[in-house]
TrEMBL record:
SMART domains: Cyt-b5. One of its GO terms (biological process) is unsaturated fatty acid biosynthetic process. Its EC number is 1.14.19.44. This is Acyl-CoA (8-3)-desaturase. One of its GO terms (molecular function) is acyl-CoA (8-3)-desaturase activity. Pathway: Lipid metabolism; polyunsaturated fatty acid biosynthesis. One of its GO terms (cellular component) is endoplasmic reticulum membrane. It catalyses: (11E)-octadecenoyl-CoA + 2 Fe(II)-[cytochrome b5] + O2 + 2 H(+) = (5Z,11E)-octadecadienoyl-CoA + 2 Fe(III)-[cytochrome b5] + 2 H2O; (8Z,11Z,14Z)-eicosatrienoyl-CoA + 2 Fe(II)-[cytochrome b5] + O2 + 2 H(+) = (5Z,8Z,11Z,14Z)-eicosatetraenoyl-CoA + 2 Fe(III)-[cytochrome b5] + 2 H2O; (8Z,11Z,14Z,17Z)-eicosatetraenoyl-CoA + 2 Fe(II)-[cytochrome b5] + O2 + 2 H(+) = (5Z,8Z,11Z,14Z,17Z)-eicosapentaenoyl-CoA + 2 Fe(III)-[cytochrome b5] + 2 H2O. The chain crosses the membrane at residues 266-288, 308-327.
Length: 445
């Protein structure tokens, strides 16, 4: 019998792909069921993969049932290699009549943002300046040595002790910005080198675990200011009522864990001064031990061994512990004001699955560029650009900012940039406003 030419051609082309609609994908959003997501029109079943995902199970689960193309591009430095590993998860693709992303999203804005990404790549803005990062590391090490020399040369009286603590807190803050760069894979061209040096900076220079930072921070970037998905706003509702929408919602539900109408006052007590010394300091050890992150624990231990070997001979054990606590206290105030000025005053809501560009811009704001602001905040005064392009080296944020502003203006999206002190004040103003909204809803709705 003569061979069937149609069957032969079909066999040569491989099996017929399975086609899906956006409605079918949206139904696989987790919550005890399957988890699917879409990248470049390809549909992946990540249900069993989430626990093995190098970036953590939660960050990939936050996009279950949704298009994940833009965060995939934003987070992965070697996308070709990652796609090879993902081939076993591929179950099909979107039907030809389906749009490339959810029909509810703005096609023009999404297309133009992706064109902006391509323009940015052509401009070379993803290429790091290694001299910049080397100088930043050297200035951290210089300040660290200077802090010890002050005590060694001038004794351990009150003034040298406080000056040493100030310098150590500066070291910790600046090392925090540098580990942030490394964690986002923006210092070296390969993931391996970024991860290796990240362990050194966050572990040996700061005494914190890289795995803990990755677990929390990538969720924040994936869904900033989205309740139950961004861990940075987990203080809602147990400590603070955040954002206009969530505060009114909390009031209507007659929930009151704290006197939220006074939260702009008690923020000064349980926010900036307490976050690092009272919470992070013990929680990071709980995290690494519970999850058996022994490599991280070894790096953290090296930090404390170094601190005590250098300062106990000068201050004794109690004095060294006091110095470390004071440095953490000062660092905590620095860290909280800088990290919260860009997000707490901005739009906070449940995940509405909007366009990546508009989600990131609405959840973030900038602080005006200056040499001091850039250094003081680790260039996180360009929070909008950082959230849109998290792998971009920070020294290039100001170069892409005009392009981002133009795209915002074209689509009527507010691009906020403000003075540093105004940004600090807006944290307090927004807490006062959301607390009052909660009270009004609690009493009258």
């Amino acid at each position: 019998m003569a061979p069937d030419p149609v069957a032969a051609e079909t066999a040569a082309q491989g099996p017929t792909p399975r086609y899906f609609t956006w409605d079918e994908v949206a139904q696989r959003s987790g919550r005890g069921k399957e988890q699917w997501l879409v990248i470049d029109r390809k549909v992946y079943n990540v249900t069993k993969f989430t626990r093995r995902h190098p970036g953590g199970s939660r960050v990939i689960s936050h996009y279950a049932g949704q298009d994940a193309t833009d965060p995939f591009v934003a987070f992965h430095i070697n996308q070709g290699l990652v796609r090879k590993y993902m081939s076993s998860l591929l179950i099909g693709e979107l039907s030809p009549e389906q749009p490339s992303f959810e029909p509810t999203k703005n096609k023009e804005l999404t297309d133009e943002f992706r064109e902006l990404q391509a323009t940015m790549e052509r401009m070379g803005l993803m290429k790091p300046n290694h001299v910049f990062f080397l100088m930043h590391l050297l200035h951290i090490l210089l300040l660290d040595v200077t802090a010890w020399l002050i005590l060694w040369l001038f004794g351990t009286s009150f003034v040298p002790f406080v000056l040493c603590a100030v310098l150590l807190s500066t070291v910790q803050a600046q090392a925090g910005w540098l580990q942030h760069d490394l964690g986002h894979l923006s210092v070296f061209s390969t993931s391996t080198w970024n991860h290796l040096v990240h362990h050194f900076v966050i572990g040996h220079l700061k005494g914190a675990p890289a795995s803990w930072w990755n677990h929390l921070h990538f969720q924040h970037h994936a869904k900033p200011n989205c309740f139950c998905k961004d861990p940075d706003i987990n203080m809602h509702p147990f400590f603070f009522a955040l954002g206009k929408i969530l505060s009114v919602e909390l009031g209507k539900q007659k929930k009151k864990y704290m006197p939220y109408n006074h939260q702009h006052k008690y923020f000064f007590l349980i926010g900036p001064p307490a976050l690092l010394p009272a919470y992070f300091q013990w929680y990071i050890f709980y995290f690494v031990i519970k999850r058996k992150k022994w490599v991280d624990l070894a790096w953290m231990t090296s930090f404390y061994v170094r601190i005590f070997l250098t300062y106990v001979p000068l201050l004794g054990l109690k004095g060294s512990l006091g110095l470390l606590f004071l440095a953490r206290f000062l660092e905590s105030n620095w860290f909280v004001w800088v990290t919260q000025m860009n997000h707490i005053p901005m739009h906070i809501d449940h995940d509405r699955n909007v366009v990546w560009f508009s989600m990131q811009v609405r959840a973030t704001c900038n602080v005006h560029k200056s040499a001091f602001n850039d250094w003081f905040s680790g260039h996180l005064n360009f929070q909008i650009e950082h959230h849109l392009f998290p792998r971009m080296p920070r020294h290039n944020y100001h170069k892409v900012a005009p392009l981002v502003q133009s795209l915002c203006a074209k689509h009527g999206i507010e691009y906020q940039s403000k003075p540093l002190l105004s940004a600090f004040a807006d944290i307090v103003h927004s807490l006062k406003e959301s607390g009052q909204l909660w009270l009004d809803a609690y009493l009258h709705q």
